[in-house]
Amino acid sequence: MSRLSIVEGDITCLQVDAIVNAANSSLLGGGGVDGAIHRAAGPGLLAECSRLGGCPTGEARLTGGYSLPARHVIHTVGPVYKDGQSCEPELLRSCYRESLRLASEAGLETVAFPCISTGVYGYPKSAACREAITTVTEWLSAHDLPRSIIFCCYGSDDAELYRMQLTSFA
Ligand code: ADP
């Protein structure tokens, strides 16, 4: 649990080994956190992303961080929430796991996640938070890397939700 922390604010400002982007499957940018990351990283990020040929839902891809304070960006594509019965939980867990697997294989020590799928993709925040915490905790119990993981919450409501769920999880 000491390897997990919650930060409230803009993920593009974090000086970590990698920030995770809640991307869409084209990897060519979009709104929300994706737009913010591309704006802050500059055009080199879009150029690298456009060479990747997209990314299926539940998978992840690693790029450079360009003008971001973060050294890398891990792009993962969360599920669009439909009814909760369309593999959304499995796909959301896969986003966290695959991002962590890439980070670990690249030897990255510090990684920050936004609340994947909980914006435009409509995943209910409390359920998404539970999947995020469960998956990340399981990963940490079995792996040395990343050494430290940040949940970056964009707003005090999300941060409070993560604090409450982490406390009840401990
Ligand atoms: P998705 O399409 O996966 O739902 P969004 O970008 O719409 O992606 O939202 C995902 C989460 O990212 C939401 O919780 C939203 O509040 C948050 N978010 C938006 N901008 C930022 C930012 N600059 N830093 C961190 N989180 C952000």
Describe the overall structure.
The chain is built from five helices and six strands. By secondary structure, it is α/β, with parallel strands linked by helices. It has one domain: Leucine Aminopeptidase, subunit E, domain 1, CATH 3.40.220.10. It has a six-stranded mixed beta sheet with strand order 1-6-5-2-4-3, sandwiched between helices. Strand 5, helix 4 and strand 6 form a beta-alpha-beta unit. The longest helix has 18 residues. The structure holds adenosine-5'-diphosphate.
Strand and helix map with partners:
Elements: E1 4-8, E2 18-23, H1 32-41, H2 43-50, E3 60-64, E4 72-77, H3 88-105, E5 110-113, H4 125-142, E6 148-153, H5 156-169
Parallel strand pairs: 1-6, 2-4, 2-5, 5-6
Antiparallel strand pairs: 3-4
Helix pairs in contact: 3-4, 4-5
Bound molecules: adenosine-5'-diphosphate.
